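Pasting as-is:
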Amino acid sequence: MTLDTATLPTDLFIGGAWRASTSGQRIDVLDPATESVIASVADATVDDARAAVDAADAAARGWAATPPRQRSEILRKCHELMIRDAEKLAALISLENGKALGDARGEVAYAAEFFRWFAEEAVRINGDISVAPGGASRIIVQYQPVGIALLITPWNFPAAMATRKIAPALAAGCTCVLKPATETPLTAYAIAQLLAEAGVPDGVVNVLTTSTAGRVSNAVLDDPRVRKLSFTGSTEVGRVLLRKAADRVINCSMELGGNAPFVVFDDADIEAAVEGAMIAKMRNGGEACTAANRFYVQRGAAAEFSRLLTGRMAALVTDDGLKPGTQCGPLVNAEAVRKVVELVDDAVAKGATLLTGGKRLDRPGHFFPPTVLADVPPDAQLLSEEIFGPVAPIVVFDGEDEAVELANATEYGLVAYLYTGDLARGLRVSERVEAGMIALNRGIVSDPAAPFGGVKQSGLGREGAHHGMLEFMEAKYISTNW
């Protein structure tokens, strides 16, 4: 479809109103496929951030007191409106993020589902009542909204990462300030527009874009009315935010980096494993924290797996995400391309064999082709760093213990992928691998009904499932007797 960017909201959304930043400054939003300017958005200042917290505070008591069924119905309406506008939103995501339109459509459906799931969860805020073991009192536990939440989202899934935080916050009765990435702010503003149409009261959700993320985020976190931080992004930035949140002991949820292993045993269905690898690696062009980053293949299956994966990767059409037939769009910006080039060149220099791709495409835009590397040495940087691009490094292993050791040889622990024809082995290895999520004979784990999150330095807390709403609530214990 043709998207009229002139009709898109581009100002700050504070207290239910669209407003320019107090500085009057703007931030250009670029098309990764052409490097041309799509639009410019307001560049929020510290004063704007304080105004957003004021708006969230003004709405907080009323929203917390809103009956759960009413909050549920508003969230259900948000789901309906996202589905209604699915094609427009998908085109917008593809335009500012670069991902292929098919991937963008999948993201919109996934993002909308968080509104439907948490519409259902909003009426299930159940407490507990029990008799104390000694019999002297009753123990009553109820759950209350944690308070105003700062939500910080990345550019790789601009719709889904926003709704995965907004929906549980609203279901729990919290108001919030959303700070989306400056690479992809237009999607966040489009969602804000839908929230208002769905009946979300003024001030319940506020949206700020800023070129001074540290200063603006710090101003919000310094405000004593703010009691929650939910962040999705790099582990490096997560550490900084955790240190800042410690100043006021703010409740934190962190969905951080990944370095996902994709383990294929000899007894696996190799064609199914390759199909799963294409999903795990190439969803969003590899720009996902859940993307398969390291492919460990048992020696007896390595040749066939490498041949089939190389054929599939080489056949992908790399082009502007909005063009029909595109399967791999551009990376989000020049820095993303630079990093991928550096990682691939390092691996090749250390002895890896390039099976397909490997060189930046000679054309405008931030394009890097789907790439497969074999014989990757253990000291290659791309085995220890999050690649965030369409690159699949293959390493051969011999036994189960070695596979587990290789999979766990990272500071991250978000997700792992396992392929085997032996269910007992699959479950045994699943228990041994240090990851918050395991995809066993599947190429994807994400589901709004499942608890998404990692261990080690991949994060704190969970998003999705009932757990996701509880992240925005505090348990209150009342001791009494009768």
